[in-house]
Design a protein that fits this description.
CATH class of the largest domain: Alpha Beta
Catalytic activity: ATP + H2O = ADP + phosphate + H(+); Couples ATP hydrolysis with the unwinding of duplex DNA by translocating in the 3'-5' direction
GO molecular function: 3'-5' DNA helicase activity; ATP binding; DNA binding; exonuclease activity
EC number: 5.6.2.4
Number of domains: 5
CATH architecture of the largest domain: 3-Layer(aba) Sandwich
Shape: globular
Distance between the termini: 51 Å
Radius of gyration: 34 Å
Protein name: DNA 3'-5' helicase
Keywords: ATP-binding, DNA damage, DNA repair, DNA-binding, Exonuclease, Helicase, Hydrolase, Isomerase, Nuclease, Nucleotide-binding
CATH superfamily of the largest domain: P-loop containing nucleotide triphosphate hydrolases
Length: 1120
């Protein structure tokens, strides 16, 4: 793969880095989007007075961290020789220019990376709220809620209590309860679900109040129906219109006395209906004439009296004309499809009951949001949506947002937005507000980059239509003008993959752009890398579902890939976690390590289920299922026969009382009695001590005493620790406020990662894989359909041409569903089907070398293979259908197989291992080298890197450098940046670092490690040395005092000198020279380093010992 193709879009790439122009760039998969962003950022750095004038916004921490690291890497590389590759040379030259500007302006970016404003949209919002508390009404940034659902639940309960007290909103609640058949529980859960999406609907409802809002809503509905009828009228074949009218009049005349049917609107009709809402019933009559109940065109042989064409010679000519019409319409599938859809179109007005329910929701839901605000304020917490809403509110409260930001020392001259295709309406409006004062040619620029073909986050209200609308050349209706650019080169995948994607997705993606539905046509890519031998994409087809056979083939592919090239990366990507159980079971059975991205729910792990059962049993003596589970758990594993004998004839007795019944115990097996003789006293003690200890201490102590830690693998014990951590977070006064909080908490946590996996095999959902790339990609489960979505309390849709559509949920009494509600749902379904095609595109374009597709189809009654409805395979069927029938392996039809779990149990005579008695140590005052007065002055306030947050950063950096010494520098894999970022975020959260500061803290950690890996001194420190150690604890006597210390890094160099190195995660201030900085630190830490030297000289008399401070943020070195 040494030869590469020409760069077909070189001119567009050159234009994109012009710092004086604003652009919107479509950058398909593998097109080098991140490098283009880096080049643009570097070009801007070369022209601004302050780096803070540039703001880069991303949508994930991973993307922000990657951009910051690559930007700093580019700045560091500017100090080295020019690279050979053309694209790297361009980046190098831009970085040289940026460093020259850095020198002129005195920024010292490499020592002060925090000057680079690269933020997630969430952290940017939090920053706005923090800077403008008087406008946002937060009074400061609240704590980010770990479990927002609990707060939503409380707000919903508070709202429903208004009904009991007859307060404001009680009439609306009563109306909704009647509509939902008095199901208070269902209404409460629907309100909770609505709160989680309030950033999507709240802006609509605030502008829709009172009876005067009915006309705009019905007008929008009328415009939409008229638009659909316009499309239908235009698609109707002109040569068929006369025959449609004749056949319609004839059939209606035969059916006039057979009951109400839409076809009767065609009676005596001698003109075709027009594209107006008044003619909708006539179009539905045409559909009744031509279509079956399933929406398909009628078959000529199926024409009979039920269609209005009875048998007999008198009807023969009409019947023949009807059959000929149907034959003619076979060549007009678009008309038939639109005609079928018109059956579902509603009247362009709300009936009285619809409007009453809609009004109740319009009036009630803002009250629900107000209740949530009160809950947030009481708890001192908020979710991301609330922070985003308040940030938008704060900006919108000023007539000129740019002037407001200037007053707060946040003047912006240039904004870059990554992944713009995933922008929501709220984020789009925020961007409009930020740039509302910008004028063409005023020196301020906007740079938007993304790929609408990879827009797959509609569940987060990502609206791809916003990208399509903006690509026309302007942000909003009156915002910044933008030049559209489209990249085409794919630097990731070999030509075989690129050609397959171009060919296949031409039949998957729509042909034309449609902003309203989010239809994105395929933009074909140009391969840069040459093809590899062999097929690029392989189909593994099954006739009938066989999860085990599919999993075995996946396992075979993984083994073959690892055998062919142990260093290549393989990814197993699925649409849903539920498609993985058989595959994961086989991987574990074969002891093949893999990294899983949020795949195994903690609540599904056996160790977690056992601990939850134990918790419920200890908290509630009457929870029979929990007690039976405890007795069946591995520490006892009573047989089913013994369990039955214990409880069969005592349906109302508690298990603890039955376990004290000697006569009943005598009916158990000898083995069962012996197990109970060991565990029952432990359980009884735990019950007696309930309330005296914290809940975690009670449950964990009982679990250990029962032998829980001896029943599971090391990986399962890590999961047990996560469950105990959750218990500690949830407990209140040695109890749980509600038992369902425990199950809900477990449903939001994932099991611990396999610490032995190196990342060469990864398992994740397609959504998680976005932005990643792998040598081989395996896509199993394409034939399975996803779980259906629940019906929301309110459906809403903002149509870009017709306006706002709103509809309430249908009544629960079984009557016909609200037609407007159904229409909005159908429009949403069309959007979802388009996104399904984009999801497949994202999955396929992760592959660098090979792509494997797995799926099953089933034979219908005619023996034809057909995929399941709404499956990914159905989307690909126009491309794969013919090939599928040829290569499909016949599988016996069977129900989905249950995973086989072996029942584990402790041996009958298991006992705790004996603990050796240890003498209590004599208490001795031990000093620490870092406690010496000469460099620790409590009167000096912390500043800069010495703040508490920076101390936590330093701790993580120390840990990372220790791992690099032990595992080698190659363990810091570039493709694992997202896992590291998430791990660092969890560690920071545990240390108490506010979420708003995570992004900058993670960037600092990444920068410190990257600089160490690239720096001359850093590489030397990480290399293997003689008698090397990290975090070495030493205790000894210095100047007559017992002293304890932990040395960050020590080793003997090639000259036989013992080195003592102490890491310091700090850097010179902006106006401070390196010499002055080193002098200050040398004096500050002299006593500490001398103590280290003296302790080591006592261990190695006669050996020369030298000490130094190492500063990983800039590869700084300061010897004592």
């Amino acid at each position: 793969m040494s030869a590469v193709m020409p760069i077909a879009d070189a001119e567009q790439r050159r234009a994109a880095i012009d710092p004086d122009r604003s652009f919107i760039v479509q950058a398909p998969a593998g097109s080098g989007k991140t490098e283009l962003l880096i080049q643009r950022f570097l070009a801007l750095l070369g022209s601004v007075e302050r780096p803070q004038q540039i703001l880069a916004i991303t949508f994930t921490r991973k993307a922000a961290a990657e951009m910051r690291i690559r930007l700093l890497d580019a700045l560091v590389s500017a100090q080295q020789d020019s690279p050979e590759e053309a694209h790297k040379k361009k980046t190098w030259q831009l970085a040289r220019d940026a460093m020259e500007q850095d020198r002129k302006q005195g920024w010292e970016l490499l020592q002060n990376p925090s000057l680079l404003s690269i933020q997630t949209i969430d952290s940017f919002n939090a920053g706005l709220v923090n800077k403008m508390p008087w406008l946002s009404r937060f009074g400061g940034v609240p704590e980010l809620a770990e479990d927002a659902d609990t707060l939503y639940q409380q707000a919903a309960e508070n709202l429903l209590q208004r009904f009991m007290r007859g307060q404001q909103g009680s009439d609306q609640i009563g109306r909704l309860l009647t509509h939902l058949d008095n199901r208070m529980d269902r209404l409460q859960q629907m309100l909770v679900d609505m709160l989680s999406k309030r950033d999507q609907w709240l802006r609509h409802l605030l502008g829709v109040r009172g009876e005067e809002s009915r006309q705009p809503l019905e007008s929008a509905l009328e415009n939409l129906v008229a638009d659909k009828l316009q499309q239908l009228s235009a698609a109707c074949p002109a040569e068929c219109k006369e025959e449609i009218l004749f056949c319609g009049r004839y059939a209606a005349a035969q059916l006039w006395d057979k009951g109400e049917r839409p076809i009767l609107t065609l009676t005596d009709l001698d003109w075709m209906p027009q594209a107006v809402v008044e003619h909708l019933p006539i179009w539905q009559g045409v559909a009744d004439l031509l279509l079956t109940s399933g929406g398909d065109l009628r078959k000529p042989r199926g024409i009979n009296k039920n269609c209005g064409f009875p048998t007999g010679d008198g009807h023969k000519d009409a019947k023949i004309r009807m059959q000929s019409l149907l034959d003619e319409l076979e060549s007009s599938p678009a008309f038939i499809s639109l005609l079928s859809a018109c059956r579902e179109l509603p009247r362009a007005e709300y009936i009285a009951e619809q409007w009453q329910i809609l009004q109740a929701l319009i009036e009630l839901l803002p009250l629900l949001v107000a209740e949530l605000w009160l809950v947030f304020r009481a708890e001192g917490q908020a979710d991301f949506a609330e922070i985003a809403l308040k940030a938008k509110e704060a900006l919108a409260s000023a007539t000129d947002p740019s002037d407001l930001l200037l007053k707060l020392d946040s003047q912006l001259e240039h904004i870059l937005v990554d992944e713009f295709q995933d922008t929501s309406w709220l984020q789009y409006q925020l961007l409009e507000t930020l740039t509302s004062g910008w004028q063409q040619g005023d020196g301020r620029t906007l740079f938007l980059v993304g790929d609408p073909m990879q827009s797959i986050y509609r569940f987060r209200e990502a609206e791809v239509g916003l990208f399509l609308k903006t690509f026309a050349g302007r942000l909003g209706d009156d915002g910044t003008q933008l030049e559209p650019l489209r990249l085409s080169c794919n630097f990731r995948s070999q030509q075989g993959i690129v050609d397959w994607v171009n060919c296949s997705f031409a039949g998957v993606f729509p042909a034309k752009v449609d902003v309203a539905s989010g239809a994105v046509p395929l933009a074909e890519a140009d391969a840069v890398l040459p093809p590899l031998p062999g097929g690029a994409c392989e189909l593994h087809a099954f006739n009938g579902r066989d999860d085990l056979a599919e999993a075995e083939q996946v396992l075979q592919l993984v083994r073959q890939a690892q055998q062919d090239d142990p260093q290549q990366t393989v990814a197993i990507l699925v649409r849903s976690r539920t498609h993985l159980p058989q595959i994961l079971q086989l991987l574990r059975q074969q002891q093949i390590p893999f990294q899983a991205q949020d795949i195994d729910l903690l609540g599904e792990q056996p160790v977690a289920l056992d601990i939850i059962s134990l918790t419920r049993a200890l908290l509630h003596r009457g929870d029979r299922l929990a007690w039976l589970s405890v007795l069946r758990a591995p520490w006892a594993a009573l047989s089913l026969h013994d369990l039955h004998a214990l409880v069969a004839d005592a349906p109302y007795a508690t298990l603890p009382s039955l376990l004290q019944d000697e006569q009943r115990l005598a009916s158990l097996s000898d083995e069962g009695r012996q197990h109970l003789a060991r565990i029952w006293p432990i359980l009884q003690t735990a019950i007696d001590k309930r309330g005296r200890f914290g809940l975690r201490q009670l449950v964990e102590g009982c679990w250990l005493a029962l032998g829980g830690a001896a029943c599971y693998s090391a990986e399962a014990l890590d999961n047990a620790a996560l469950v105990f951590d959750l218990l500690e977070r949830l407990e209140e006064g040695s109890d749980l406020p509600a038992l369902d909080l425990l199950e809900k908490g477990l449903s939001q946590l994932f099991s611990a990662a396999d610490s032995t996996a190196d990342g060469r095999l990864q398992v994740m959902t397609i959504h998680k894989a976005k932005g990643l790339e792998f040598d081989q990609v395996i896509l199993p489960g394409l034939g399975r359909r996803p779980r259906g979505a629940d019906s929301p309390l309110l459906r809403w849709l903002e149509h870009p041409e017709h306006g706002l559509l709103l509809a309430p949920i249908a009544p629960r009494d079984g009557s016909e569903q609200d037609p407007i509600y159904r229409l909005i749902g159908k429009l949403e379904q069309e959007k979802q089907q388009l996104e399904t095609g984009r999801l497949l595109y994202v999955a396929a374009t992760r592959a660098r070398q090979r792509l494997h597709l797995f799926g099953h189809a089933k034979e219908n009654s005619r023996g034809e293979l057909k995929p399941e409805k709404d499956s990914l395979l159905e989307t690909l069927w126009p491309v794969l259908g013919e090939q599928f029938g040829v290569c499909a392996v016949v599988s016996p039809e069977a129900e989905p197989q249950m995973m086989q779990l072996a029942l584990k149990r402790l041996p009958l005579y298991w006992q705790h291992p004996e603990l050796q008695a240890a003498p209590l140590p004599q208490t001795i005052d031990v000093g620490r080298a870092s406690d010496l007065e000469e460099f620790d002055n409590e009167d000096v306030p912390f500043s800069g890197w010495e703040s508490q947050v920076q101390r936590h950063i330093g701790t993580i950096v120390h840990n990372q450098l220790e791992q690099l010494v032990k595992q080698g520098a190659e363990s810091w894999r570039p493709d694992a940046a997202d896992q590291r970022s998430e791990a660092f975020s969890r560690q920071l959260a545990v240390m108490g670092v506010p979420v708003a500061e995570h992004d900058s803290a993670i960037a600092t950690i990444m920068s410190a490690v990257e600089n160490t890996l690239q720096g001359q001194k850093g590489r030397w420190l990480l290399q293997p040395h003689t008698e090397s150690a990290c975090e070495l604890p030493l205790t000894g006597v210095v100047d007559g005092a017992l002293l304890h210390c932990v040395i960050d890094r020590t080793f003997i160099d090639e000259h036989g000198v013992r080195w003592v190195i102490d890491y310091k995660v700090s850097a010179p201030k902006k106006t401070e020279t390196h010499e002055r900085f080193y002098a200050e630190k040398r004096e500050q830490y002299r006593g500490q380093l001398l103590s280290y030297q003296l302790l080591l000289q006592q261990l190695e008399p006669g050996r020369k010992v030298r000490s130094a401070l190492y500063f990983p943020l800039f590869d700084g070195w300061c010897e004592l």
